[in-house]
């Protein structure tokens, strides 16, 4: 090998050759360690400063966010203005909410009551239409019986003499009558179940009250008629021998019985016959009173139906 090849690589590269560790001076080693220690301390301090700065930044951000939230909440709490105005504003909002709720409930109740009013009126019209039909039937029945009174009073003088089949038939046929009973289910509900307060129209309320008053008058007249009828029935059974007459009619014809001499009376004195005549006359008078009250009821019923249909636009 040449001398060039035998030189160290460091020398060939132009670098100074490294000194062996045992040949490095202690001053250089101490100085180097000092420099490394100071660099490490500086790096540690810089890292600590960076951490502190980061923590401070986070705390500042949290504090700022908390402050913003508190400010926002405070703004909401004091909206729209000062404290007194805020409470006044809340009161007005609450008042308006309650008032609007009250109006909505009132409108709903008003609508429900109006519908119930129409239902009551519709049902009342149906009841009164039945009344008019029943009144017509009852009045016709009373009028048909009136002819029997004419026969009884015209032949009454023959009652204590001999049997008269026409007189006997008339005396039996004038007993009883076709009574009128009002269909007052809806009217009673209006009167006693608070239904009349739903009737807002004064004209309708007055018409219903007038019809109800006529019904009460008719009920009173009907009770008096029942008492008079009981009087006639009692007197008839006191002096008339219905058992003996039935026996005769079972074996003989009416013409044969009329030709006989039996008058079939239990009492033949003038007092008994006079009492029977009196109760019979009272009975007829009270029947006329009842017919008169039914005529008025019929007119009032027809007028009431017309009023109800007109006021509530019913067909």
Account of the 3D structure:
The structure is a single chain. This protein has 315 residues and is mainly α. 77% of the residues lie in helices and 0% in strands. It is built from nine helices and no strands. The chain has helices spanning 9-12, 26-77, 83-155, 165-173, 185-192, 202-239, 242-251, 254-259, 270-311. α3 runs antiparallel to α4 (165-173) and α6 packs antiparallel against α9 (270-311). The termini are far apart.
Search tags:
single chain, 315 residues, mainly alpha, 9 helices, 77% helix, rod-shaped, disordered N terminus
Mean pLDDT: 79
Could you spell the SSE succession in H and E letters?
HHHHHHHHH
Class by helix and strand content?
A: mainly alpha
Number of strands: 0
Gyration radius from CA atoms, angstroms: 60 Å
Runs with pLDDT <50, length 5+? Answer: 1-22
The best one-word shape is rod-shaped
- Work out the helix count: 9
Strand content: under 5%
**Could you give a short account of the major beta sheet?**
none
Intertermini distance = 141 Å
State the helical fraction.
Answer: over 70%
Give the SSE map.
Elements: H1 9-12, H2 26-77, H3 83-155, H4 165-173, H5 185-192, H6 202-239, H7 242-251, H8 254-259, H9 270-311
Helix pairs in contact: 3-4, 3-5, 3-9, 6-9
Quick overview:
The protein has 315 residues and is mainly alpha-helical. It has helices at residues 9-12, 26-77, 83-155, 165-173, 185-192, 202-239, 242-251, 254-259, 270-311.
């Amino acid at each position: 090998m040449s001398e060039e090849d035998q030189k160290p690589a460091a020398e060939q590269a132009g670098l100074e050759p490294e000194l062996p560790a045992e040949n490095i001076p202690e001053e250089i080693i101490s100085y180097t360690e000092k420099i490394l220690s100071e660099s490490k301390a500086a790096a540690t301090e810089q890292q600590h400063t960076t951490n502190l700065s980061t923590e401070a930044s986070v705390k500042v951000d949290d504090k700022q966010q908390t402050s913003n939230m508190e400010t926002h909440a405070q703004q909401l709490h004091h909206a729209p203005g000062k404290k007194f105005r805020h409470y006044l504003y809340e009161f007005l909002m609450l008042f308006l909410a309650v008032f609007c709720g009250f109006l909505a409930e009132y409108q709903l109740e008003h609508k429900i009551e109006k519908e119930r009013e129409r239902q009551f009126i519709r049902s009342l019209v149906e009841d009164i239409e039945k009344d008019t039909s029943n009144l017509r039937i009852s009045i016709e029945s009373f009028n048909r019986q009136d002819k029997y009174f004419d026969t009884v009073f015209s032949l009454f003088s023959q009652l204590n003499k001999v049997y008269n089949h026409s007189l006997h038939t008339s005396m039996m046929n004038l007993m009883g009558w076709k009574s009128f009973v009002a269909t007052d289910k809806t009217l009673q509900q209006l009167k006693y179940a608070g239904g009349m307060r739903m009737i807002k129209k004064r004209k309708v309320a007055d018409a219903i009250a007038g019809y109800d008053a006529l019904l009460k008058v008719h009920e009173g007249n009907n009770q008096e008629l029942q008492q008079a009828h009981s009087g006639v029935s009692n007197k008839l059974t006191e002096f008339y021998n219905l058992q003996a007459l039935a026996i005769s009619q079972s074996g003989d014809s009416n013409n044969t019985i009329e030709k006989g001499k039996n008058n079939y009376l239990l009492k033949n004195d003038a007092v008994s016959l006079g009492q029977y005549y009196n109760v019979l006359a009272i009975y007829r008078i009270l029947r006329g009173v009842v017919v008169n009250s039914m005529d008025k009821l019929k007119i009032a019923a027809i007028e009431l139906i017309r009023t109800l249909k007109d006021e509530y636009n019913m067909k």
